[in-house]
Amino acid sequence: xxxxxxxxxxxxxxxxxxQLLSQSDLPAEVxxxxxxxxxxxxxxxxxxxxxxxxxxVTDPNIDIIVELIDDAQASFxxxxxxxxxxxxxxxxxxxxxAENLKQVNQWHQMLEAPLLYEASVAGSIPILSTLNQFYxxxxxxxxxxxxxxxxxxxxxxxxxxxxxxxxxxxxxxKNGFAESDPSLDISGKDALYKLVILSYHAFGELTTSFDHxxxxxxxxxxxxxxxxxxxxxxxxxxxxxxTKKADKIQLKVQPELVNIEDPLFNIEDENNAIHxxxxxxxPQLYTGKGAGSHPTGAAxxxxxxxxxxxxxxxIRAPKNTAAAPPIETI
Amino acid sequence: xxxxxxxxxxxxxxxxxxQLLSQSDLPAEVxxxxxxxxxxxxxxxxxxxxxxxxxxVTDPNIDIIVELIDDAQASFxxxxxxxxxxxxxxxxxxxxxAENLKQVNQWHQMLEAPLLYEASVAGSIPILSTLNQFYxxxxxxxxxxxxxxxxxxxxxxxxxxxxxxxxxxxxxxKNGFAESDPSLDISGKDALYKLVILSYHAFGELTTSFDHxxxxxxxxxxxxxxxxxxxxxxxxxxxxxxTKKADKIQLKVQPELVNIEDPLFNIEDENNAIHxxxxxxxPQLYTGKGAGSHPTGAAxxxxxxxxxxxxxxxIRAPKNTAAAPPIETI
Lengths: 330, 330
Known about the structure:
The structure is a homodimer. By secondary structure, chain A is α/β, with parallel strands linked by helices. Chain A is built from 12 helices and 12 strands.
């Protein structure tokens, strides 16, 4: 039977998902779409739209909620209500997941309705399903990645086209690789959200406060630092790292000097990459587009495929309980 | 309830799988192991062993068959019998799968018991589950990969240590990266088996004959070709390619000149890599170890995880029926 989807939001990723779903043979269709403003002219049947998210979440004819809005607070409320109504949920809201990891873990453990969010991390790279399937039964010792396409794009353009950071940022915005408010990208906060989610799935780590995590903006660097790196045949990249040492997980996001031997050396522009070290598999590298309507929409499509096949995340036993010490600073 | 596994074979990969399973929290355990020769001293409980595969396949107390032997013909018989007895099967036998694709497709479509074989392609890289989940609902346009660790190791050593092909082969054998009979590796046939399996999962392509596929051994190259490549800053690598053009799939395995812009340029030694182009996601690269006891055992562990969670391959509708034209030569 065709599953009815309530789609919350109709921005870039939601449109990509809508298009991919309508071309696919998955037994599911978008039945309603919740948006903020119904006055806007839309390219699809105007009758699909509503401004009342509550309506979708409680409607017994809606089987699955796909939530793709920016607002983390509104996202949390919608996801919570939908799950409590027994509806499976797919979301891409990294801030909502990362800032509510304890609650998310309870949802994963206590509720029948699954919650998936592949598109929240590294755009098109199917890293969460890989962590939950391939890496679930081996120890992960380290994850190191380029998780923010905007800042990587800016650093690439500064190096290759000798632009200043401001010029590179303007170019990124012009080409759609940075938000109109790029502060989350530049500060490393966006990458940190993703790293916190990866760390939850790789280690079972429940990060509840970001205060002690080293987080350094790409703007903290002097111009001459870039010249020095280039002279040595090295590059500066904003790297997110989660390392397991003696059962403690260390997280950091900071600009780093990488040399040609580094698996992340060749990752340029808006691409993302994740390098993982597993005790059984050895090192692996996954690269792909970190954002975009269809690339990120494809990750939402995978979640839908998995939902329809009864898949849910099987999280490792959390290491970090209320009684445990906070995350170590590095 | 703990699932009982009948393990067929106790070679390098089977031992890796046995070790990883015994350390894991998966509700499954190896109940019997079928080997050729019970006289050999084993490092685990001698009572687990039998030489009668039939016994495991028909035993109502065995829930799952994990088949990890080299012999493709024996593998086929065991897998067929197990599936017909309603037992889910995990195998790593690429030759058996690739040479019996039509039968495998019927098993996938007609039988209740699932058949998974992640470890048959690219060792530790979880590419088949990725093709069946992330890539299942978008068009794949090309797969290009380094799928044979032995030949890649030989080519790396020839270039970096200026060895002849014979010397590099001996080094590969000494370090456990090549079989005592390396002809399948060197000829490209091993990579071709893997490419045929990838092509089935990426395109739904049922390759039934290998006669018209371009297959070129790495031994066909003159020594001076290597010097020429080096002078141009290029490398020679054995590349397996499956390309979709106007609804036809073209397969080939051959040594190719790759330059520094090529995503496969940096894949050295026994590593494998797969570069995929998907219509929605754009290009992606997956790299990892192509062989080894624990890396390949980890892929078997993933299959077991998926089996226990009710996963099975959802293959695209096959393109290539009996009435269809054979695969185009290139």
